[in-house]
Amino acid sequence: MKSSLRYMGVLTVGVAVLAGGCKTDSDEMGESLIIEELDGDHALMERFEDRVRVTDVSFDPVGFRYDSYQIDGGEVGKLNRVADYLRGNGDVSLVVEGHSDERGSREYNMSLGEHRALAVRAYLIGLGVDSARIQTRSYGEEKPVDMGHNEAAWTNNRRGEFALYR
Amino acid sequence: MHLELNSRGRFAAGAVALAMGLAACMHAADVEIVKAGSIKTALSLKGMRADSQAASKTFRKVLEADLVRSGWFEIAVGGASVDVSGFCQGSGDRLTGQCRVVNNIAGKTLLSEQLRGQVANPRQLAHRTADAIVKAVKGVPGIASTQIVMVGARVGRQDLYLCDADGARLRRATHDGAVCLSPSWGKGVLEILYTSFHNGYPDAYRIDLGGGRRIRLAAYPGLNTGAVLSPDGRRIAMTLSKDGNPDLYVKDLRSGVLSRITRTAYAAEASPSWSPDGRQLVFVSDRAGRPQLYVQALYGKTAKRLTYEGRENAAPDWAADGRIAYSSRRGGTYEICIYDPVARRHTQLTRGDGDWEDPSWAPDSRHIVCTRTSGYRSHLYILDVMGDPPLRLTSSEGDWYSPDWSSQ
């Protein structure tokens, strides 16, 4: 519930000019129209991001083929290493982050990235990691690691990353 | 008489002369003339006067631009079939527009109305007047008073922005600088639904513009995206992955009950859009291996596949008149296509020169706002399904994408 409390109440001051004003192009273009943040009517689960990020160990991202969420045989070794680490460090939790390349619909790419993250999660659970220790987060095409616009960049950007928390 | 319009909106000179000749022979209520693009009604604004105030002059200028942008009119100097007369004057902080619309052929007054607005906001009064004229002459809703919400990426920061249908009054709605996506209008022009990462995860939010509030709609484990309000305003469709896989869900706002619509363990769904009667959803699914469009009744068990042409089809938007716009990968580029459920025919609206994606219908079921990406830069464009050429909407620096056109 920590994160839900953190965002309660007034965040930004200053109301934007809702009507009129005829503000033209500037860097600011008015203040935020949002002056108050409210929680919805449902409980929020605890998210690992509120814990401390583990930085002394990192794992290579898992790659994917275009439009695919399936884990290729060549990527299995990477997942085995992550599973070994998690089994040996029972206090560490994992957020699998799914990404797509820039091509196609942004909204579909969010679903594809999530599907990839969930495929990685399911694989790790299959290797014996407790499902309660693994959450997923998709960034779709929004966080490319390679800013290029070619096959090599797209291959680098279709990936599942591992963010560890303690 | 039937004139075939080609989708690029270009007519040969002979076709223009033919159309004018045929129109002159008809005993129609309109004299229609054809320039580049769609058939237009000749309208004169000669009798529409403005006093010397700056606001009145803005009103007059914006009104004329709105009538042209509506797509239905050609501003004529003489020989118009529709005369718009009246005046615009300011008094204190009040701005008044008196407007009379006469069909010269039938000798009939179509509209005689006085609209009141504010000197501080002459554009709004002009937009309302333009919409009243479109409604009176063509019997269809105008789009001048509508708004467009979009994602803007400027100096590496993403936020939601709003603008009027003519691109004016571009303004920022959020100030988070966090990844945000797929905004859609909720009730009228007072609410926006969208997904934002400002809390670290892709959660769905509703922004109440009137009260300046942002309310969290869905923050389930995993994905909370694509939230769209049903036409009756009582339900929200969205994509959630809380049950282990991205599937479509519908939340009843009154009872809070969440219903799962799709159950595809080995496929991802995305981008729901409501049918005009609120009984069906069109959406994207990759259950056949690649993203394609499907339609499913809200309480139905099976989905019907809609698209077979094109390697990928995505981002569907269902118009008020029943047609569905979407983006389709054709060859090497993404193009805007339209599916007509009556004729059961798909037509391609754009032809290369960049990637065209994310279509959203205007309430006139004639215009579409979409993203055009060329040279890795994105801007919004207005398309006309009746043949007028594409019009660029955004001019400010930055990337502009994922637009949604308000329904009123």
Largest interface: A-B, 57 and 72 residues
Distinct helical segment count of chain B: 3
Alpha-carbon distance between the two ends of chain A: 17 Å
**What is the helix/strand order of chain A?**
HEEHEHEHE
Radius of gyration of chain A, in angstroms, nearest whole number: 20 Å
Helix content of chain A: 25-40%
| Total number of distinct structural domains of chain A | 2
Write the CATH architecture name of the largest domain in chain A.
2-Layer Sandwich
Largest sheet data of chain B = 6 strands, mixed
The largest pleated sheet of chain A is described as:
4 strands, mixed
Count of helices of chain A?
A: 4
Number of strands of chain A: 5
CATH class of the largest domain in chain B: Mainly Beta
Structural class of chain A: alpha+beta
What is the end-to-end distance of chain B? 33 Å
Overview of the molecule:
The complex is a heterodimer of chains A (166) and B (408). Chain A is α+β, with helices and mostly antiparallel strands. Chain A has 2 domains: 1-44, no CATH class; 48-165, 60s Ribosomal Protein L30, Chain: A (2-Layer Sandwich). Chain A is built from 4 helices and 5 strands. In chain B, the strands form 7 sheets. In chain B, strands 1, 2, 3, 4, 5 and 6 form a 6-stranded mixed sheet that branches. A 4-stranded antiparallel sheet of chain B has the order 9-8-7-30, with no helix packed on it. In chain B, strands 10-11-12-13 form a 4-stranded antiparallel sheet, with no helix packed on it. In chain B, a hairpin with a 6-residue loop joins strand 11 and strand 12 (203-208). Chain B starts with 12 loop residues before the first helix and ends with a strand. Strand 1 of chain A pairs parallel with strand 13 (213-218) of chain B.
Give a quick summary of the entry.
With 166 residues, chain A is α+β, with helices and mostly antiparallel strands. Chain A contains four helices and five strands, in the order αββαβαβαβ.
